Amino acid sequence: MAWTKYQLFLAGLMLTTGSINTLSAKWADMFSAPGCYGTKDHNFSHPFVQAVGMFLGELSCLVVFHILLCHDRRRPEPSMEPGQSFNPLLFLPPALCDMLGTSIMYVALNMTSASSFQMLRGAVIIFTGLLSVAFLGRRLQPSQWIGILVTILGLVVVGLADFVNGHGDDSHKLSEVITGDLLIIMAQIIVSVQMVLEEKFVYKHNVHPLKAVGTEGFFGFVILSLLLIPMFYIPVGSFADNPRQVLEDALDAFCQIGHKPLIMLALLGNTVSIAFFNFAGISVTKEISATTRMVLDSLRTLVIWVVSLALGWEKFQGLQILGFIILLVGTALYNGLHKPLMDKLPCFPREQTAEEGDAPERERLLGGGKTTQES
């Protein structure tokens, strides 16, 4: 069935905003400007400030939810389901995981390339699968176990590409690249814990996904904003890339933004894109399918890699292409995107098709849970 213009618009919006989110965060990292205290030009290395901006974008989803709800209630026949009332503190544990995982990933993005950052985030299916078996009692299909193994292979290839490229990369030392890659994978463990917590305690409540995203964004924005105060006084020595060598120097970040306003444009791109990405993701699941959403989520990795090459942010690496293809295959196997093809072969027994598998996924994403976030 041919897509409508609105469906094409939603797919394009999700792909575009998902790509802009990572690219804008990396763009901010590449700026250099004077800071406070009369310091000379230095890199904009403020991952926790960037994370606060990301949570502000998530928080805006709560505003969008109430605007849409008010607009819907003015119609003769309201169609929007607001969901049941719930205790907002239910979202505090996953919000804390989101806050920690996002902050670690922004630290890692300072150390490695945007394409590797996006590719290595595919590790989340490994830990989500294992934790869902351990804590949710889920039984993974053989194809999902194979998908996890293939994903591990893809991560090894991407890591190897970074190791090879690290020797000739002027922007990042080899040690930084390896550390950044390891931090990204470590962050995926935290993100997988977040997903399991959401599924165990949140999805059983009929919470609209925009409201869920906005509530977690509220907790993340408030808590991390308050934590910027003690971070300003915590010395971490050479581990910090700011003049005072503290965990986070928010004042220095604002001074750098004042000296180079383009940094603010990059941060705004990150904040706005996360809001539109969450909205587009929900709409794609509702208007098209959860399978399409998974495919678009994988395609944005390719977009980020192509744009990074075009802008000269990184060098071409054949191993990266191989790693991306392997990760794509692993993701497809884990999410069951191969089933329609396998069902057509007479030698294989019929399994649940990808579109049939969309039913519980669609219900989970639309009626009781948080969208897949871009951090």
TrEMBL record:
<comment type="subunit">
    <text>Interacts with SLC25A5.</text>
</comment>
<feature type="transmembrane region" description="Helical">
    <location>
        <begin position="319"/>
        <end position="337"/>
    </location>
</feature>
<dbReference type="InterPro" id="IPR009262">
    <property type="entry name" value="SLC35_F1/F2/F6"/>
</dbReference>
<dbReference type="GO" id="GO:0016020">
    <property type="term" value="C:membrane"/>
</dbReference>
<feature type="transmembrane region" description="Helical">
    <location>
        <begin position="218"/>
        <end position="236"/>
    </location>
</feature>
<keyword id="KW-0732">Signal</keyword>
<dbReference type="InterPro" id="IPR037185">
    <property type="entry name" value="EmrE-like"/>
</dbReference>
<feature type="transmembrane region" description="Helical">
    <location>
        <begin position="262"/>
        <end position="282"/>
    </location>
</feature>
<dbReference type="GO" id="GO:0022857">
    <property type="term" value="F:transmembrane transporter activity"/>
</dbReference>
<dbReference type="Pfam" id="PF06027">
    <property type="entry name" value="SLC35F"/>
</dbReference>
<feature type="compositionally biased region" description="Gly residues">
    <location>
        <begin position="366"/>
        <end position="375"/>
    </location>
</feature>
<feature type="transmembrane region" description="Helical">
    <location>
        <begin position="48"/>
        <end position="69"/>
    </location>
</feature>
<dbReference type="InterPro" id="IPR012404">
    <property type="entry name" value="UCP036436"/>
</dbReference>
<feature type="transmembrane region" description="Helical">
    <location>
        <begin position="177"/>
        <end position="197"/>
    </location>
</feature>
<keyword id="KW-0496">Mitochondrion</keyword>
<feature type="transmembrane region" description="Helical">
    <location>
        <begin position="145"/>
        <end position="165"/>
    </location>
</feature>
<keyword id="KW-1133">Transmembrane helix</keyword>
<feature type="transmembrane region" description="Helical">
    <location>
        <begin position="89"/>
        <end position="108"/>
    </location>
</feature>
<keyword id="KW-0813">Transport</keyword>
<comment type="function">
    <text>May play a role as a nucleotide-sugar transporter.</text>
</comment>
<dbReference type="GO" id="GO:1901029">
    <property type="term" value="P:negative regulation of mitochondrial outer membrane permeabilization involved in apoptotic signaling pathway"/>
</dbReference>
<dbReference type="GO" id="GO:0005739">
    <property type="term" value="C:mitochondrion"/>
</dbReference>
<comment type="similarity">
    <text>Belongs to the SLC35F solute transporter family.</text>
</comment>
<keyword id="KW-0812">Transmembrane</keyword>
<feature type="signal peptide">
    <location>
        <begin position="1"/>
        <end position="18"/>
    </location>
</feature>
<feature type="region of interest" description="Disordered">
    <location>
        <begin position="352"/>
        <end position="375"/>
    </location>
</feature>
<dbReference type="GO" id="GO:0008284">
    <property type="term" value="P:positive regulation of cell population proliferation"/>
</dbReference>
<protein>
    <recommendedName>
        <fullName>Solute carrier family 35 member F6</fullName>
    </recommendedName>
</protein>
<feature type="transmembrane region" description="Helical">
    <location>
        <begin position="120"/>
        <end position="138"/>
    </location>
</feature>
<keyword id="KW-0472">Membrane</keyword>
<feature type="transmembrane region" description="Helical">
    <location>
        <begin position="294"/>
        <end position="313"/>
    </location>
</feature>
